């Protein structure tokens, strides 16, 4: 087993796991010292390209951003989202997972879904590809408004059962997205592998956020997003100073000229 994955597994019930997204070398270099997992998520579709859905993200786009992010990741486990329509069956999934790993040098791939992907996960594991699962809100499958999961008893049972089955087939961790608090707690307690929450309460074994949301670069009103910084304001201030110095003929001075 990958040493980094083994390390993540050992954190279960010992300390919280820190996960953030990154889509580039520069951001990866900044977050890597503080994270356990860096996720190159297909969330880049909405964050960087303003797509209405992650379904529009291509395999090529994911690979190119992952290649960039890889250059800044030294310590953390690197996980790459397999985009929509790249794992419709086990053979397609294996072909594309191998391509992602070969071209990006990532440690694992992430797939959305429960019962529908069990055989695919099993096949990938058989071929020595590490897989992270994803339950709750599945952005690649949702059309329209996102609604949190775990409100109804039948839905709760289904998600819990899928989490247990995914673990059985070999995923090393599962992202729980927008799952009701008590259900997220129950799932986390029922599994031997760690859960990574996003909008799914403090009871998950770790947490993940989109880096652009966390640093205030991407303004969003999503409930689970907390802004820990205001990078947009810093950028505006820097650009304002640059403009001012250029207009006043102060930049570039001799120090910045050949």
- Beta fraction: 5-15%
The total number of structural domains is 2
Major β-sheet strand ordering: 1-2-3-4-5-6-7-8
CATH class of the largest domain: Alpha Beta
Uncertain spans, ≥5 residues at pLDDT below 50?
A: none
Order of helices and strands: HEHEHHEHEHEHEHEEHH
The structural class is alpha/beta
What is the CATH superfamily of the largest domain? Phosphoenolpyruvate-binding domains
Shape: globular
Output the CATH topology of the largest domain. Answer: TIM Barrel
**C-alpha termini separation:** 53 Å
**Helical amount among residues, as a percent range?**
25-40%
What does this 3D model show about the protein?
The chain is of the alpha/beta class and 258 residues long. It has 2 domains: 3-227, TIM Barrel; 231-258. It has helices at residues 3-10, 25-31, 44-47, 59-70, 90-104, 118-126, 153-169, 181-190, 211-214, 231-247, and strands at residues 17-21, 37-40, 77-81, 108-110, 131-136, 173-177, 195-198, 206-209. The protein has an 8-stranded parallel β-barrel with strand order 1-2-3-4-5-6-7-8, surrounded by 6 helices. Strand 5, helix 7 (153-169) and strand 6 (173-177) form a beta-alpha-beta unit. Helix 2 (25-31) crosses helix 4, helix 4 (59-70) runs parallel beside helix 5 (90-104) and helix 7 (153-169) packs parallel to helix 8 (181-190). The protein is globular, with a radius of gyration of 20 Å.
Secondary-structure map:
Layout: H1 3-10, E1 17-21, H2 25-31, E2 37-40, H3 44-47, H4 59-70, E3 77-81, H5 90-104, E4 108-110, H6 118-126, E5 131-136, H7 153-169, E6 173-177, H8 181-190, E7 195-198, E8 206-209, H9 211-214, H10 231-247
Parallel strand pairs: 1-2, 1-8, 2-3, 3-4, 4-5, 5-6, 6-7, 7-8
Helix pairs in contact: 2-4, 4-5, 5-6, 7-8
């Amino acid at each position: 087993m990958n040493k980094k994955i083994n390390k993540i597994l050992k954190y279960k019930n010992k300390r919280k796991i820190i996960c953030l997204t990154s889509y580039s070398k520069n951001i990866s270099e900044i977050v890597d010292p503080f994270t356990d997992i860096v996720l190159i998520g297909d969330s880049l579709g909405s964050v960087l390209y303003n797509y209405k859905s992650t379904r529009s993200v291509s395999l090529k786009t994911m690979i190119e951003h992952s290649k960039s992010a890889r250059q800044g990741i030294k310590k953390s486990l690197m996980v790459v989202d397999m985009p929509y329509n790249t794992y419709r069956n086990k053979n397609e999934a294996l072909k594309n997972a191998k391509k992602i790993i070969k071209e990006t040098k990532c440690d694992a791939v992430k797939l959305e879904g429960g019962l529908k992907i069990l055989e695919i996960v099993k096949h990938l594991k058989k071929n020595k590809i590490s897989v992270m699962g994803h339950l709750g809100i599945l952005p690649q499958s949702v059309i329209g408004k996102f609604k949190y999961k775990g409100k109804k008893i039948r839905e709760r049972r289904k998600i819990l059962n899928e989490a247990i089955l995914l673990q059985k087939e070999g995923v090393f961790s599962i992202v729980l997205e927008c799952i009701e608090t008590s259900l997220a707690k129950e799932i986390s307690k029922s599994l031997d592998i760690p859960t990574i929450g996003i909008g799914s309460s403090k009871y998950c074994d770790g947490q993940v956020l989109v880096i652009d949301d966390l640093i205030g670069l991407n303004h969003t009103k999503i409930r689970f997003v907390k802004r820990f910084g205001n990078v947009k304001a810093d950028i505006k201030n820097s650009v304002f100073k640059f403009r001012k110095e250029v207009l006043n003929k102060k930049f570039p001075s001799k120090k910045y000229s050949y």
